[in-house]
Amino acid sequence: MLLQRQSIENHSDDMKAHIDKPLASIIAVLVVGGAGVFISAAFGLLARGASHISSVVFNHLVLGVSLGLAALAATTFIEYRRWRVWAPYLYGCALLLTALVFVPHVGFMHGGGRRWIEILGFTFQPSEALKIATILMVASYFSTLRGESGSWRGLAAFAAILAPPTLLLVIQPDIGTLGVICIAALAVYVAAGARLRDIAIIGAIGVIMLGGLAYLRPYMLDRVTTFINPAENPLAEGYQIKQSLIAIGSGGVFGRGFGQSVQKFTYLPEPMGDSIFAVAAEEIGFIGGSAIIGVFLLLALRGFAVAARAPDYFGALAAVGISTYFVSEAFINIGSMLGLAPLTGIPLTFISQGGSAMLVSLGSAGILLGISRYRPKK
């Protein structure tokens, strides 16, 4: 710990500080454009006579976007190496908060999962914080012990870090969030120098676990079956994907126009949540939907560019993990709306309803921008 603090002090004077403007611009486009899509989708909930529309909008725009932008500003200007020192504590706190969902009168169930806690009248989904905490923990470990990544000890340590989040999220259940965490953490592990043999072992364990979960939790098997053949249960498990494809297809090339989506008013489940890409595609068409995908691709490429230019190993690994977290979450969501992936219920990054998700995503974006502020002097 002392060595890590000394490293922060010794290297901070050797870098030039300025954020990566293209990366900041991409994030700004997603947040501003996402707010517009969210507001349009909110009209669908209002038309359905929902009485809680004001609280939904308040939670997303005020608690999510406003506090999230404050978190982004704060994390951008925190010396990013401090996250390496804080990673074990953040990871422990995130695990503790996630475990609180099982405490009576603190955690509560909604939509078939026990994923939220309520404190002082405000609800929060702690598994969102577990995403960035796990990424930072894996990056901190392999940057501190660089020689471990290609050894059995490195594989055991990686499994030990992922084991507690896996247990908590399987019990909730929240398999979508677990998938994002595993993909992002694996990207960090691969970037740290994991052997192909170890990656194959992790993949085999993942397949076995998914098979076991599908056997123990029939709803997961139903989602896979629906993904393979959406027409099998068009009024049950296949309903959401059917309505999503109708919305996306009816948008045509240029879309119906902003606010003109038809599916969001009656037919499309969760128009502000995991179905928000379908609403956007119906209103801005194939060109607009392709533009959204393109912006996320640019976000990933710019994030990986930040990782390539990072002045130290921790900065590079953390940037890889955060960039992978953003793009994997977004593409899993978009893929499920296009019928290219099973439905998971995870949000579309920076766009879908969810104060917790928006707050943590913007805070994580600030960490990535903070890494981009530093360059090795030539």
Give your account of this protein's structure.
This protein has 378 residues and is mainly alpha-helical. The chain has one domain. It is built from 14 helices and 3 strands. Strand 2 and strand 3 (122-124) form a beta hairpin. Helix 6 (152-171) packs antiparallel against helix 7 (175-191) and helix 8 (196-216) packs across helix 9 (218-228).
Number of helices: 14
Radius of gyration: 21 Å
Structural class: mainly alpha
Helix-strand sequence? HHHHEEEHHHHHHHHHH
| Count of separate structural domains | 1
| Biggest beta sheet attributes | 3 strands, antiparallel
Strand order of the largest sheet: 1-2-3
- Low-pLDDT regions: 1-7
- What average pLDDT do the residues reach? 83
How many E strands? 3
Q: Specify the overall morphology.
A: globular
Strand content: under 5%
Helix content: 55-70%
N→C terminal distance: 29 Å
Offer a concise description of the structure.
By secondary structure, the chain is mainly α. The protein has helices at residues 2-11, 21-47, 53-76, 82-99, 126-144, 152-171, 175-191, 196-216, 218-228, 239-250, 263-266, 276-309, 313-337, 355-372; strands at residues 107-110, 113-119, 122-124.
